[in-house]
Design brief:
CATH architecture of the largest domain: 3-Layer(aba) Sandwich
Number of helices: 9
Helix content: 10-25%
Order of helices and strands: EEEHEHHHEEHEHEHEHEEEEEH
Largest sheet: 10 strands, mixed
Structural class: alpha/beta
Number of domains: 2
Radius of gyration: 21 Å
């Protein structure tokens, strides 16, 4: 809802780090299907500027619209929850009734199959260390790969539907099931793999969608939040030390806390605002999961220790912070 968008533009997409990962972007393309802003800045200024926001959207064929009262729109969404929408461009008068009719027939958000759109199609390797971590890509952000690299492991990124047999063939020290879009129940192949990872006691970390997948693999249930958690300043409480952390969140589904009673997981983090589940730990196996993003670009960084938790599970069989 910030009134002016695009005033510092977009950095160079070609800038990579030593592992070939983009320095400034979380994925290799724009993931949204449209952009709505109150005011678009057509002039941008920044020391690392490569494109204006308008140029970037144009290059990637993403439509946008400005001049919208985004605060009023946000109020409506806060009252009604997630809603279907259409962005229509026409040289003539727009037939609103026709647009609404077409929108009513359009596939709903929770019915779409996102994995084939967001997941890698082939194995990708980052680093050359002798010990590796497999990242199951259900829509992984680059920052997650960077943070796994920081704890000293080669990363092998694999498609969302990779089998347990294929994962074991890499002889990984651990596995990360990443963030991503959509209903976790649609990731049946990933849930099956997660069940096997838990059963074989392979150190595993789930993040965001990955946390929901691990919950489902452990016989918990998930449900759709009315509003979802979106933002970089969501407070979460670590139930082990009662410390509050500021976290980045972007999810519309959550683990049902009541269903954890029928699983072998215990609560680890809860949301300080609405008491929803934000983290779980397996009572017997080397498996942990967080609903929030332990890393974020440009921040916060409060919970990057979660990656150290995984490292301790792999190297010592215990967690880093109690």
């Amino acid at each position: 809802t910030y009134p002016l968008i695009g005033n510092y533009g977009v950095p160079d997409l070609a800038q990579k780090d030593n592992d070939g990962i983009s320095k400034h972007f979380e994925s290799n393309k724009i993931q949204i299907r449209g952009l709505v802003v109150h005011e678009l800045s057509t002039f941008a200024s920044h020391w690392n500027l490569s494109l204006t926001l308008d140029e970037w959207l144009y290059n990637e064929k993403i439509p946008g619209i400005s001049g919208i009262d985004t605060r009023e729109l946000t109020k409506k969404l806060r009252t009604s929850g997630v809603m279907m929408a259409a962005l229509v461009v026409s040289d003539s008068q727009i037939d609103e009734a026709k647009v609404k009719h077409e929108l009513a027939k359009a596939p709903k958000y929770n019915s779409e199959e996102f994995m084939d759109e967001v997941s890698t199609k082939n194995e990708e390797v980052f680093g050359n260390e002798p010990k590796s971590i497999v990242v199951i890509d259900t829509g992984v952000k680059n920052a997650i790969i960077r943070n796994v690299r920081k704890i000293g492991y080669k990363v092998i990124k694999v498609p969302w539907n990779t089998t347990i047999e294929k994962i074991l063939s890499y002889d990984p020290k651990g596995v990360v099931i990443s963030n991503g879009p959509g209903d976790p129940k649609k990731c049946k192949e990933t849930i099956k793999t997660a069940k096997s990872l838990i059963a074989k006691n392979i150190p595993t970390l789930g993040i965001c969608l990955g946390a929901q997948i691990i919950g489902l693999a452990g016989n918990a249930k998930t449900y759709k939040l009315k509003y979802g958690h979106r933002g970089q300043n969501k407070p979460c409480i670590n139930l082990e030390n009662k410390q509050v952390y500021v976290t980045s969140q972007n999810h519309g589904y959550c683990i049902d806390p009541k269903s954890l009673k029928k699983s072998n997981f215990k609560l680890w983090f809860t949301n300080a605002d609405d008491k929803t589940v934000e983290g779980i730990k397996h009572k017997k196996k080397k498996c942990i999961a967080v609903q929030f993003h332990p890393e974020a670009s440009p921040g916060p960084y409060d919970c990057e220790f979660v990656f150290e938790e995984l490292k301790h599970l792999m190297e010592e069989g215990k967690t880093a912070k109690n």
